Amino acid sequence: MQNIALSPSIALIILVVFGIVWIGFGYFLGRNNKTLEDYMLAGRNVGLAFATATAMATWVTSNTTMTAPQVTYELGVWGMVGYSLGAVGLLLFAPLAKRIKHLLPHGFTSGDFIRERYGVMAWRVFLTISLFYAFGWLISLGMAGGILVNALSGVPYHLGMSVILLVCVSYTLLGGLKAVIATDFVQTIIIITGVILIALLVINNVGFERMHTDLQLERPMLLNLLFPAAIMFLFNNLLFGVGEIFHSNVWWSRAFAFRQDTGFRAYFIAGLFWIPIPIVAGFIALAAPSLGLNVPASDMVGPLVAGNILGTTGAIVVFIVVFSALASSLDSLLAATADLITQDIYRGHIRPYASDEECFKAGRFIILGLGIMTWVLCVPRLSTLASMLYFTGAFVASAIWPIVFGLYYRWATGMAATLAMVAGTGLGLVAYFSIGYYVAAVASCAVSLVVIVVVSKLDASQFNFEKLANRESNA
Amino acid sequence: MEWLIWFVFLTASGYAWAADNNPLLVSTDVSNEGYFVLNWDTGNEESELVLEQADSERFDQVISRDIPGTGAITITGLEDGTYFFRLRQDSGPIGSSVQVTVQHHSLARAGSFFALGAALFGTLVFIILNGNRKANL
């Protein structure tokens, strides 16, 4: 086996101790959840500090702490820089969050908006995309947990993945969005401190000059600024991140949960703080050649490098940081996806007259069901994290324009939005398979733009935004 | 339904290892990104294996990597060219060599996607700023 930085017993002790702390925290915070709004939206009363922390912590995920090193290992310097462009999604969502709160003061989910703005057909297409993405992200997070534990400690993939899922499902189930946001706050502090510490230790142990020399000799393309696939990756990652954030209920539910006038500042500050995180996380992958490391799968490179050069103490820090990052995203995604299923599938399609109390109960069962389904889909480790994640890029980037035009412009129609999402996803997938994962989002976004503009202009109808502002949520 | 399509595509694209008796297998014959995965199963995990890389089938100039018991290695960052790999033990090479051709996408194609992405980003920023201005936010 490859070098193991932690003994399996230490890894399991960390998992159990942090697991107990998070679950206890969830139970404590969940005691006062009395209504559906308390559980799903933390009473719509989240202030700036918690709002900023939850936005940032949720966006620092396995994507950042494990996939950023992977794309750096595969695509070099541009991979690292391109990954940090994911911050643009948060920055651009800042004005959207303000608009969302203004238009839908009583909204619960992103699906609410699409249904009211574009009608049932667009709503169903959007739900398909959104749920597909949510499952893709959930699986990538579950897989990342298993890979992390295995790479650092040798604990079997399935055991690590199962324990991490169990912990996150438990505290989300007990505490709802309040627990998610409160744990995110603590996890943000751990992540920032840990990432800075790791970067300083890597620079101190290996050094820039040695890394540069070895890369130039063994992996020259990683330093080449004219690396074609990496050049294509830059804006693809930016648009993928924008698509992820703009459409996903993870971010909409926070926009609804934040206090009035908090959303813009929270998302903007979180975006600025997020920019350096993937640079630092990705940078450590460039030390792999200098260390003579054999990397079996490129999504293991981050933990392997950290464990190799930082020793047991460093490995413990890495373990805690990545575990925190995973947990902060997994809980958010579980909660937001459960909200979407409760509100848009259960209440929207199955039981239209379900009371709040009934939805409150259903939401808990749905979180549990999501956890079990994620576990089942994580068991066969089908792909690497990046190819798994970027596969969803074709889907989410197709929703960017329907969301943006839908929020600001009257002329965008339901038919145009539906066709834009379908055509964008289709062409994005063609690009994914015919060229590579690093172009799927760009292709999808471009096609979606053309379709929504052209088809909308064929129809003279104008949407009345008063309809949204005056509506009461059916929840 | 989407999951079925996703499963079939990923299974077909990511795990299509060559099917012959050589213990060393490669994930792709042609790489457009300079990275690929080499996978092996010698049936003897205890043996000290070395992976040799060369730019000719004769293995005149060799880059060697010790690969104790890992079973796979991801090679990245290679420039255009044809690369040969084989496994070796103290007693000599194991099986035959495998060949991978690295042929990066053209810069014209890369530049086109870059420009398209930049244009979409610029449009998006303009649309949002203009929308905010009109909405008086």
Give an overview of the whole structure.
- The complex is a heterodimer of chains A (475) and B (137).
- Chain A is mainly alpha-helical.
- Chain A is built from 22 helices and no strands.
- Chain A has helices at 8-30, 36-41, 48-59, 62-75, 77-84, 87-103, 110-118, 120-153, 157-205, 208-218, 228-247, 249-257, 263-274, 276-283, 301-350, 356-378, 385-391, 393-396, 400-408, 414-434, 440-457, 466-470.
- In chain A, helix 3 packs across helix 15 (301-350), helix 5 packs antiparallel against helix 14 (276-283) and helix 12 packs across helix 15 (301-350).
- The radius of gyration of chain A is 22 Å and the shape is globular.
- With 137 residues, chain B is α+β, with helices and mostly antiparallel strands.
- Chain B has 2 domains: 23-104, Immunoglobulin-like, CATH 2.60.40; 106-137.
- Helix content of chain B is 30%, strand content 31%.
- Chain B has 2 helices and 8 strands; from the N terminus they run H-E-E-E-E-E-E-E-E-H.
- Chain B has helices spanning 2-14, 107-134, and strands at residues 24-26, 30-31, 36-40, 50-54, 63-66, 72-75, 81-89, 92-102.
- In chain B, the strands form 2 sheets. A 5-stranded mixed sheet of chain B has the order 2-8-7-4-5, with no helix packed on it.
- In chain B, strand 4 and strand 5 form a beta hairpin.
- Chain B is elongated.
- Chain B starts with a helix and ends with a helix.
- The chains are: A mainly alpha (475), B alpha+beta (137).
- At the A-B interface, helix 4, helix 6, helix 8, helix 11 and helix 17 of A face helix 1, strand 5, strand 6 and helix 2 of B.
